[in-house]
Known about the structure:
Elements: H1 3-7, H2 12-19, E1 25-29, H3 35-48, E2 56-60, H4 63-77, H5 79-84, E3 86-89, H6 90-101, E4 112-113, H7 116-129, H8 139-151, H9 156-161, H10 167-183, E5 186-187, H11 189-202, H12 204-213, E6 216-219, H13 227-237, E7 243-247, H14 262-265, H15 267-270, E8 275-279, H16 287-297, E9 318-325, H17 326-344, E10 349-353, H18 358-368, E11 373-375, H19 385-398, H20 403-409, H21 419-432, H22 436-440, H23 443-447, H24 451-471, H25 477-487, H26 490-497, H27 501-525, H28 531-540, H29 543-546, H30 551-555, E12 559-563, H31 564-567, E13 572-577, H32 588-592, H33 596-607, E14 610-624, E15 627-630, E16 645-648, H34 650-653, H35 659-679
Parallel strand pairs: 1-7, 1-8, 2-3, 2-6, 4-5, 6-7, 9-14, 9-16, 10-12, 10-13, 11-12, 13-14
Antiparallel strand pairs: 14-15
Amino acid sequence: MNQAEILRGMNPQQLEPIQTLEGALLLLAGAGTGKTTVIVRRIANLLLHGTAPESILAVTFTNKAAREMKERLRKMTGEENASRMTIGTFHAFCARVLHEHAVRLGFSRNFSLATTSYQQGLVKELMTAAGQVGEGYDADAWLHQISISKSRLESPEELAEREGFRMSEKAEIYAAYQKRLQQMDLMDFDDLLCLTVKLWSENPRVLESYRARYRQLLIDEYQDTNLVQLKIMLMLAGEHGNITVVGDDDQSIYGWRGASLSNITEFESYFPQAKVIRLEQNYRSTGNILTAANSLIAHNKVRREKNLWSEHGQGDPLKVVECDDADKEAEFIANYALDRHLTQGWGGLAVLFRSNFQARSLEQGLRKKRVPYVLVGANSFYQNKEILDAISFLYCLVNPKADLHFLRILNVPPRGIGDTTVTILRDFRESCHLPLQEIASDKDVLDKLPAAAASALSSLLQIFDKYRQEFSTPGDLAGKCRRYFEALDYLNGLGRMYKPREDALRRRDNVLEFFNALADFEQDSHNPSTLEAFLENMALQDANDRFSKDKKVQENDAVTLMTIHASKGLEFPDVIIAGVEKDLLPNQRAVEEGSLEEERRLFYVAITRAQERLALTYADKRMVRGNLHRKIASEFLDELPQDIVKYLKPSQFFAKLSPEEVTKQMQEKLRAFLQKDKQG
């Protein structure tokens, strides 16, 4: 690795951040401008100029992005350098910090992470105990509020003072929730961040040790950071201020889950001497797509100005297709896929939509025409009941205090432990405040249970003890797990739990695939692994990591359906954005809550996923909550440059091109190909 190799092929705007090695740097990287390449080469340049690999901390927002960055660094800087850097998500980094110092906060070093389903179950249990049941009491809404409060570093007491719907009751559950998590030696996803801030605030020497360790900080997707992540960054940067943040305020689309746009728009208020560099040359899309995106986003008032451009030629005009109703919209999209398949196959076409409910009619339309598709983010493998049960069985080994996991599998598969036994165990817990596994192992408690239930419970705990010991030695996770589940009679028991037989066999196959996940994890680790490490890695996974390993996706022979939010960071030759209508995009509730600019950013993200062709569809009529409503096109369409947009009906869209139009298209494609070849 040498200087010439690091700088080769970079444009002038990319060279500047690569060669800026000290101080605070804000890199405004527009969509498709090669930011990952710049990040990797900047880190390589730091190493070349004497920075120790151990002193570099690079934080991304998804495990997928972290793996990609680590792999590219491995290729550019070598295995040894890459392995000595700290590269991961905010949450993974904070988990590492807390495992070193959690005892200072009243947790063990081996604390567990609460899964989403566990969090939901705990909040429901606490709400029921507090009498918060019936209309208006939604456990998911309460849990979302707790998460938002944590992203603001807001305590239960501070939440209770807020104005809003049942805030005092939400604050009551928030306080009880935190207490129960600590009793069970559990942290949730948000706690990893909040408790890191608490640790460093209360232990300055601990903070100073991390400042001394990490002298170069890099944060990717900075526009998605919230207040607590900003706090972590500021605390860690300290006085040396060697911090590079990379992001695009025009792609900030997570305000609804606590992201703060001001973190990027007001960066200089935290680092007055910061250098600001813009990356505007786009390597993804054609000129017309970028012109449309630039024109749209210019209507936002709160943004840092940038103007994307490309050397890929102007390309095709955008097509806006007006359909009679949602079914006709889905039919048009299916026909588009069929027409495209003749020359380009099924892959490379993405259909993006704003709201989950739109997927039903789109799926139905594709099925009717027998178009293969994959719906991204739907029916996650890890949300299947048999997998959630399997995960709970494993948590019962690594964290005997996690009562909800124990209750979940107490009678799975059926072993004669019924509601009477559960009630007795719960009553004992209320009086002695001990974990249920400890209570269930007490002879006096067992004597009060029905004989069959007591026997079954003792057998279950004996299995736990045996395999807790077996898993204490790292390695062979898949083999141990299989033997553990055979001892539990779980695989055979699926046949008693699920009918018809085909359903039971499908679920059994899922559990066997879960064993493969354990084996894959250990293989990727390159060392014998622990069960605790596997469960933590799984809990830290994001939606992109859990995306089904569908063969159609791997072989690229299916149309991709996904929400716009899920599409961020991806690119496709062809993109259709469905439902570009008033009250849908922009979303009515978001507009009412004052988030019109975020909705415009969301549309901008959708547009900039397209590499070559972009079509936008809307329906004149759509079913909403069981009633047919007249719809009108989104006001966002008026913000596009009308000279590069064609408005069509489905029948006009598929009209044959004239010989002159065919020749023009071929010439443009040839120019684009030659330009790409020249860049390569």
